[in-house]
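A brief tutorial aside. Many learners find it easier to grasp structure tokens once they have seen a single protein encoded end to end. The record that follows does exactly this for Nucleolar complex protein 3 homolog. Read the sequence first, then the structure, and try to relate runs of similar tokens to stretches of the chain.
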Amino acid sequence: MKARRNKKQVPSFRKLIKTSKVKLENKLKNKQFKQQSTLKKYRKEQRKLRQAVKDAVSKKPVPLEDPKKKRTAKRIEMEEEEEEEALPLDMMDEDDLQLMKDLGQKASFLTRDLSSSEPIHAKKRKHEHIIDKYEKIPRTLQTAPEKELIHLLPIKDKSGIIPQTREKPVIDSNKEEEDQEEMDIEEEVIENPVRELTIEEHLVERKKKLQEKKMHIAALASAIVSDPESNIKKLKELRSMLMEQDPDVAVTVRKLVIVSLMELFKDITPSYKIRPLTEAEKSSKIRKETQKLREFEEGLVSQYKFYLENLEQIIKDWKQRKLKKSNVISLKAYKGLAEVAVKSLCELLVALPHFNFHNNIIVLIVPLMNDVSKSVSEMCCEAVKKLFKQDKLGQASLGVIKVISGFVKGRNYEVRPEMLKTFLCLRIKEVEVKKDTEDINKPKKFMTFKEKRKTLSRMQRKWKKAEERLERELLEAEASESTEKKLRLHTETLNIVFVTYFRILKKAQKSPLLPAVLEGLAKFAHLINVEFFDDLLVVLHTLIESGELSYQESLHCVQTAFHILSGQGDVLNIDPMKFYTHLYKTLFKLHAGATNEGVEIVLQCLDIMLTKRRKQVSQQRALAFIKRLCTLALHVLPNSSIGILATTRVLMHTFPKTDLLLDNESQGSGVFLPELDEPEYCNAQNTALWELHALRRHYHPVVQKFAAHLIAGAPVEGSEALRPELSRRSAAELFETYSMATMTFNPPVESSHSKKKDKIVQGDSLLNEDLNQLVKRHCNEVATQSPLDFTKYLKTSLR
């Protein structure tokens, strides 16, 4: 029973908090009560004395009021003014002052008119009840101050809570003032030694602190790298520096720690995923080396998880514009810190696709690809592209594609086009080609024992066994990833990509994502199922005919259509004439300025539409395209002209009969109609390539060479043949090689100054002897000054 009582008497944490709150409230009440102490009473006493003196002097007695009744503000102001005008007490004699104090104790004296000799209660006035009430109130003019009460902690009883108080001991105010003065003097003495630093001293101090922190970070990092298994606990110490509180170096130190930890994890992380141990594995007995390895793996995974959580929190605080309670880092500095955190996440996304929490990093990075900040968005998009390019198996790519597809759908297709352009970096096309070659080369079959016994001798069988063992080891080393798994992952990835593309084509045709979708379809069109070809071509043609697309978007539609028709679409009986007409019509809409937008797409379209489909292209169509391309070459930049002329050269080789355009004589009836948008009916056979003669005088030397080569009939050999570096390259490669995007001229411009410097002739040697003598004679003559009069000539002219 005693133990139970003691247990009940122990106060809980909640009760302690409650009682401490009551204690604080009591302290506050005592402090307020103390502030309203002696001075208020003294003023009240002085006011009553002055009122008594004033009533004694005045003719009309002033009735006393109920002290409990509130007075108006105007009345209080008047009383204060009267107090100021009243006679100061220190100017009165001691006897008069004593008399006034005695009279102040008698209310009957105060109500009398001193000028009259009538008795005190001769007349009953209407204010008598006020006087009676005033008489009943106990006097407050006490010499001794009232005792103050201190509120103590209450006592809880069966009846309830009983408040406890005690009298506060009176402390002399003079002593309090002296103590306060002493405290102030001590504080001044303590504060005086602290000297404010100048800006230069502050910078020196900051540099010193920063150097110390850098050395500490470097020491921890080098210890972890040298022996990760033994020093794995130092990762926690290094990670704790992410909470640096010194405002002078907090931002810089946190950035350094983030980057250092990122590099450390890239170095010490194993090349496999660490899985959690089962209960059986934990309970089993193991060697010391294995136990040490397990502890290292557990510590690494936990610290890596905490590090990723810290980076996520930094990015969230920046996005939500939140400040911590410590306010060590400003909102402006948070942006730089968040960018470093995003950069570290991007590095880990690319460097550790096999390790734990990779899907968590993907979920963090994908929304940042659509961030308002352009630098953050580009950083994340570049990281995703890099991941797609280096991912051979396709597991990481599939995870990213799933998250991007869900994000685009969730945002109702209102995202940056750069997000969908990352799909172009997928390695699906190359892997599918590898799959075909592997299907062709069937796996090698080894001989059975019976076959060997029939055909081989004993020694041959021995050599054959060793050879087969070696071949098996080579095959195992070569097949690092399963082809079937790779094909399955890529098929699933491609399905998600096409679902995203088709949703946008169906629901968001006016979206800025359409160019990226069309470009992606053009790249992966050969992998689309044949069942979708008809519907897709109808959608593409509808988009072109709507007239709402830009010329670049319509070119992507044409490119996609012919990619479909050039692959599995050969079996389809579809006439693509409308796409030829559209490309022929769009050629003159190309941008001729510095952007060169669309020229590269046109070169790709011409290659797939005319060169690769040569059997389906008529001569009239080829002539019309060659003529229009030569006209276009006059208007665009040099690199575009070179690419177009290289395509014209390929077409002249592909369609030999097009050399009639180099002749002045017309073939057949009709006149060439350059403004007609139908290549089959513009009568291109009745014109000539006069543009080549203008291009021979072009300022770019490579354009001149191509023009001269085409005028000569594009020969393969001879003086007019092209050099191998020009003839062996494709049109797209030449377009990139001679690009002026870097503001450099290729080939470089030769200097106009000749090597031999002519002798500069100066002075008299410029003139012959007779002329020289004549000049000297005129220079030596003294000029006679005569007055100039123009008026006579003016008069004659007027007449």
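Self-check: The two ends are 150 Å apart (CA to CA). If you spotted this yourself, you are ready for the next section.
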